[in-house]
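Below is how a single chain appears once it has passed through the pipeline. First comes the sequence as given, then the structure the pipeline wrote out for it. We keep one example in the README because the format questions we get most often are answered faster by looking than by reading.
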Amino acid sequence: MESAREGGCSSQAKRAGEFFSKLTASSLEDFSAMEYPSSYAANVVLFTEREPVKALFVVLQGEVRLSINSNGGRRLSLRIARMGDIIGLSSSLSGTPYGVTAETLYPSTIAVIERREFQKFLERHPDAYQSVIEELGRQMTIASSQLRSLGLSYSAPEKLARLLLEWSDRGQAAGSGSRLRFTMTHEEIGNFIGTSRETVTRTLRDFRNRHLVAFQGSMMTILNRAALTDYAHA
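Resulting structure:
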């Protein structure tokens, strides 16, 4: 981990994310003053589930995987936090241990804000509570969507199609589809949908043969989002 603070984070990073878009100018300025960005390599664990809460984390650049893990070593990946996302918000408010494990997927820049400092911020800016409530609601909606996908999707192809569509929302437009970075292993992808590496490999091959997706190096292109949506029964 390496400190990256040089007069605060960039304006783009500060304003990315739903939470920050709802803050007043004075609240945003005060919040930014608390941020001390640090650089993290890939595959660095920020915190683990059941660990006592000490701080919340703001993703300024990069991606962070949130997961839950069994004592036997099995992992269920819940979602990927990206630029502008806040991690550990509910635990920082309640004081309860972290409910997930957070690990960087790629080299990332992350601001760590101590829980006590965040509480003082809310005391100074009670108007920010509305943004906090909305952010907690957004995170709850994402969690519900994940549970729906895992519990109510009838097949691995449907689950994988839903996952790719979700990820493509952050991708670059490419004709009738979108283009996104795709560097996780098939086993890691399987952790998001509760299936095996072999099933992911077989399903991606089928998607490619059906001209739903295409791969070039570390990039994946969804060739036809509408067709993949139909495939996912979304």
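The CA atoms of residues 51 and 135 lie 22 Å apart.

See the next section for the split statistics.
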